[in-house]
Each structure stands twice: as C-alpha cells, then as structure tokens.
Write a structure and sequence with these properties.
31 strands, binds magnesium ion, binds adenosine-5'-triphosphate, ATP-binding, Rossmann fold, GMP Synthetase, Chain A, domain 3, 2 domains
C-alpha cells in the first residue's frame, strides 16, 4: 500500500515527469524528452508517447541482459509431455533470435512488413516475436487453435508477407496440424495468400508436411545458413510493434495495433510492480502467446525485466488435473498467473489433485480474463495458496496493452472478486449512460479519462472503427465497454460488459453477481447469465448452469438453484429460467461468449453472428436444444 501511495503521489505531482522517469527503466538508443502528445477528439485524433525516443524491443528483452544475466535462464520451457523440459539462457535466446531475424532478412522481410505467427507454445514462438521486433517487422500472433478460415482472414486483414509456423503443435496429448492449416489458409486467402512469400516452419513433432519450393523454409536447416549476429533496427517509439486480434467475445475480432516505446515501458512497469519477481524466482503465466496476456506477461514484460519466464506447451488438465501444481513443484515456480476459467475447471475436480503437491515455492497468485467469482477466488487463495499468497486480480484488455486495475501484492487482500485500485498513473472513472461523472460509491460505465503509454494506437486498417468503438460513446474519453462498481473504499469491482447488464423490473444488475451466486452453490461448477425480453419485467433472467462432476441434473435441483439466487441476492434477481447445460460457448481464450447465449435465450438461434473464435461449436447445438423447454 505504501509503495502504491508513493507512486500515485509522484504521478499527481507531475504526470509527465512520472512517465518520463518510468521510461528510464528501458535502454533507449535515444532517450525521449517528451512524455506524451495525445488528443482523443475525433477531429484531431492522435496518441503519441515518447515520440522523440528511439529503441528496439528485442534489444530490450535480450541484448541489454547479456552482460549481467547472459547465463541466467530466460525461458524455462515445459513440454506437453511431463518428462520434457528445457532451460534457455539469455545468451542462447539472443543467438536464436538473431539467427531467425537473419533468415527473415535474407528473404527480404524488413521494417514495417507484417508477419503472421501461428505457433505452438515452444520457445520458437518467443524467438519469432523477438526476431520480428529485431528487424522492425510487425508480428501478428494467431492462436494455434484457430482454423484455416480464421487464419486466412487475419492474413488478408493485415496483409502479411510471411508466416512463421511449425509442422504440428502438441497440446494435451493431441497434435494440431499447423503447417497444413497454414497451407490451406494461404490458398483460401487468394490474392492476399499470394503475397505471402515465406513460410518458415519449425520442426516440432517431425510429422510429414507439404513443402513449396521457393516459398517454404525449414527453421532447423536455414538457421545454419545465417550468422548469429544481427544488429537490432533502431525504431521510433511510435513505430508499430505488433497487431493482435481481440478475442471476439463481443463481435468480429479487431486488429489492435500497439507501438514500441509506450507499450514496452508499460509492460515492463506493470510486470515489475504487480508480480514482484525476485532475481532468482521462476515466474509462470499460463496464457497462450496468441493472447495479449502472452505478449505482455510471458514475453515482453518479463524478458524486458530480465526475469526467468516459464513457457508451457500443454494444458492444465493433461495428463491429469494435478499438472499445474506439479509444474509448480518441478520448477519451483514463485508467481503463477492464470485465468478464472482454468481455476473453475480445476476446482471442479476437487481439492485432491492440488493437495497432493507441495506448492511451497509459491509466493503470489494472479488472475485475468474475466471477473473471478468470490468462490473461485477463495479456493485459489485457500486451497492453492494455502492462505499465504496474495492474489492479484488484474483487469485489462487487449487494447490497454497492460494491466490497468489490480491489487498490488502489498495491499490488504480483503475483497475477493474486486480488481480494487488503478495502477499508479491510471485514471479510471465511472459515468452514467449520458456520460455524467459518478462520484464516490457508485455503479456505472468504466472509462479512462487520460491516456497511458500502453494504450493501443488503432485498429489495423480501420482507424475509424477504433475512434468509433472506444472514443465516441463518451466523446474525448476512452470507453472500455465494461461496467464497474466503486465501493466506499474507492475499490473497483468489474461487473462485466455493459452490454450484458440486465434490467429487470427497472433494477440494473450485472450478470457477474448472479453468476457468482450460482457458482457459490456446492452443486455448480460454472454459470452464465443473460437477459431475454420479458413482457412484464422488461427483461427476464436466463441462467445456463454447468453442474459439478457427478451431480445429476434434475428439475428439483434447477428449482433449488432458483431459490438459492433469490436468497443470496434478493427477489429481483430470481432466475426466470435455469437451464442445466453440458457446457458453455467459449472463445478460444476461455471466455464465455454471452452474446451467443443471449441470442439463444431470445429465441434467435439463427442470428448468432461471428462464431469464428468459438472453441467448441457443437456446444451451441446442445444449448439451442436445451432452450426449447422454455418455448
Ligand atoms: P472482443 O473485444 O473481441 O469482444 P475480449 O474483450 O474478450 O474480445 P480481451 O481484450 O482479451 O478481448 O478481453 C478484455 C476483457 O476481458 C475486458 O474488457 C473485461 O471484460 C474482461 N476482463 C479481463 N480481465 C478481467 C478481470 N480481472 N476482471 C473482470 N473482467 C476482466
Ligand atoms: Mg474487448
């Protein structure tokens, strides 16, 4: 708390000075003298941070550590197969990245070119990101679980000239044919596909794959044809570093653009303050590099700070539900950063798989991606962390580059489910639907009133959509799309997306609250709540409920759950419908897609919209079927 307060005061005293001092954490080829120049007015829209500074993100993550940390492990890789792992030092990572950068260069890939990465969770994924950054190419990582169609649309959207991939990915004992998917995507992309003149393939499983002469290269052979030195390209702070497509929870994914200087400062700053990683700690973020969390908190933040970052190829439940905690013991992990969806899935398996491990090395637990239900928070805190590890519930978005609202480890941990306070330097606020500021304890729409270095600079190829989506609802302010409640202590509780807020008989309710009440019932593993048109109440409450392993779905239980929510929250929140379901539609990053559930509840299963980022499309059919009982 004390450090948070001191930093916040420094920011209040002189904002430019605060952010220029934070920029000092990086190695700049040319130090910036100007902090920012920002206007969120549609007329004269621009966002610039440290614009006179020159740096390179790859240099930042590798070269600057060579002298003091050359032999320190940069990437600790844990394979899908529990018997396989590998430690890569900063010096070794530097060499691999230089070689990969040289391979790209030799094929004419250079500054400003877009390169798609469609990779398994192997160290080469990080090398590929850093190799692009090294030569000033703009990477766009596409999660390896996406289909050829989804990949094709991203190749087209960003105008890629090269793709870096692997023969196959391993995940949970299964394989995914990455190279084959790339070939199909390039074909599908037509003219945009023809523009791809290099496919660089990493050999992971040794599977036989197609090979197109003149276009395709193997990484394991081409790496020996180039030298291990590659100077890093001096980049202006505002040169783009990467494009990343959002999860698609609310609609068609947006190609969010992040630039070099501000993003790197913000990733480094937040990683240091939130995770407090000591020099000898092993830090583990379980996200995939295909998401923003993987960018900022597996690769750029930790490596910029010289941390040992663990990269995991597999999934938390393979070979069994103990895997995560076994990895913690095997590598003596100190900080673990995961998502509520993983926590709820593991919680469903009971305490046994956790308790048979030691977890003595753990110092801190983090969560990100969705509101965490207090029940899941307590389990994480008490069972996994044995009550001794602070939990950082980090709220942020692809568009924010790094965490904006979170507890810091030294804060008192007394509010399960609250993201609590803004990072020093961040200025959130709540407004009503007309944009009027709400003071003190209040609930409303979450906005940011001031820019920060890690903020996205645009949507690739569609700046209009960027301004329209984020800066037009409340002109001159950044609208997050999320709702929040601020309590008497000034702590923020994220209530979910404002599109998901229910209005039942004139009462506004966040879906998160009802979901948390359901998850708190001993029979319930997971829940998603949406509204549907109701003649009398305006909106009715439709709950999709996943039961715990081994619990029978009966009408009596559905009725009990209805009573349970009524007890916990009050009569206005009483569910009109409880649908016991086999699963929920989720994005590939594990978020519940409520917009699909809403359409089903509304009786419009023919209007589901963009479902390209859905993880298990067959779940949807079962839900449509199950909803017929309410017709
Ligand atoms: P799209 O923008 O395409 O609809 P998305 O919003 O799911 O997809 P992300 O940028 O990955 O894509 O997710 C950001 C959103 O995740 C936030 O706006 C918020 O709704 C939710 N979120 C992230 N972390 C938290 C958290 N700690 N607590 C509550 N909600 C969170
Ligand atoms: Mg979003």
């Amino acid at each position: 708390m004390r450090e948070r307060n001191a930093m916040t005061s420094r920011h209040v005293e002189n904002r430019d000075k605060f952010w220029l001092e934070e920029a000092g954490r990086l190695h700049w080829f040319k130090e910036p003298m100007v902090a920012s120049d920002v206007s969120w007015d549609a007329e004269d829209f621009h966002i610039r941070w440290y614009e006179d500074g020159v740096l390179n993100a790859s240099y930042q993550c590798l070269d600057r550590h060579l002298e003091t940390r050359g032999e320190k492990t940069a990437i600790l890789w844990e394979g899908d197969d529990p018997s396989v792992s590998e430690a890569i030092t900063y010096r070794e990572a530097h060499e691999e990245v230089c070689r990969m950068a040289n391979v790209l260069k030799a094929r004419g890939v250079g500054k400003g070119d877009r390169v798609i990465l469609y990779m398994p969770m192997t160290p080469e994924a990080a090398y590929a990101m850093l190799a692009c950054a090294r030569i000033g190419a703009v990477h766009s990582v596409v999660f390896g679980g996406f289909s050829p169609e989804a990949l094709a649309s991203r190749i087209e959207d960003c105008g890629a000239v090269a793709v870096i991939t692997a023969d196959e990915a391993r995940r949970g004992g299964k394989t995914v044919p990455l190279k084959e998917n790339v070939d199909r995507a390039i074909e599908r992309a037509g003219k945009a596909g023809d523009a791809v003149h290099l496919v660089l393939t990493v050999r992971v499983t040794g599977a036989k794959v197609g090979f197109e002469d003149g276009r395709d290269l193997w990484w394991h052979t081409s790496r020996d044809d180039v030298t291990k030195e590659c100077p890093s390209e001096p980049m202006a702070a505002e040169d783009p570093l990467f494009i990343l497509y959002t999860s698609g929870s609310t609609g068609k994914p947006k190609g969010v653009v992040h630039t070099t200087g501000g993003y790197m400062v913000y990733a480094s700053y937040t990683h240091e303050k939130i995770f407090e990683v000591a020099e000898d700690d092993v830090y583990w973020c379980t996200a995939d590099v295909g998401w923003i969390t993987g960018h900022s908190y597996i690769v750029y933040g930790p490596l910029a700070n010289g941390v040992t970052t663990l990269m995991f190829e597999g999934v938390p439940t393979y070979p069994d539900a103990s895997r995560m905690w076994e990895v913690v013991d095997k590598h003596k992990v100190a900080q673990i950063y995961t998502a509520p969806t993983a926590i709820r899935a593991l919680m469903r398996e009971g305490d046994g798989p956790v308790k048979k491990t030691s977890r003595a090395s753990l110092k801190l637990l983090g969560t990100v991606g969705e509101p965490i239900n207090p029940e899941a928070w307590r389990w994480y805190h008490e069972v996994v962390g044995e009550g001794r590890c602070p939990i950082v519930d980090t709220w942020w978005q692809t568009e924010t580059g790094g965490v904006l609202i979170t507890p810091l480890p030294s804060d008192p941990m007394t509010k399960p489910g609250a993201a609590t306070k803004p990072m020093p330097g961040i200025m959130p606020a709540l407004v009503d639907n007309d944009g009027n500021p709400l003071d003190g304890a209040a609930e409303g729409n979450l906005i940011l009133t001031e820019s920060w270095p890690g903020q996205a600079r645009g949507v690739w190829g569609d700046q209009e959509r960027f301004i329209q989506t984020y800066f037009s609802t409340y002109p001159g302010r950044y609208f997050t799309g999320d709702g929040a409640r601020r309590d008497e202590g000034g702590d923020y509780w994220i209530t979910g997306r404002v599109d998901d807020v229910l209005n039942v008989s004139g009462h506004r309710m966040g879906t998160a609250e009802i979901e948390s009440a359901l998850v708190a019932h001993p029979s319930v593993a997971e829940a998603a709540v949406v509204g549907y048109p109701h003649d009398i109440k305006g909106q009715g409450v439709h709950c999709y409920v996943i039961l715990n392993q081994g619990t029978e779905p009966t009408d009596a239980l559905a009725k009990t759950l209805r009573g349970h929510v009524r007890e916990e929250i009050g009569p206005v929140a009483t569910p009109d419908r409880v649908q016991l379901a086999p699963g929920l539609p989720k994005t590939r990053s594990g978020k519940i897609m409520r917009r699909i559930l809403r359409k089903i509840a509304e009786g419009h299963p023919d209007q589901l919209g963009d479902t390209s980022t859905l993880a298990e499309p067959q779940v949807v059919d079962a839900l449509i079927d199950g909803a017929k009982q309410f017709e």
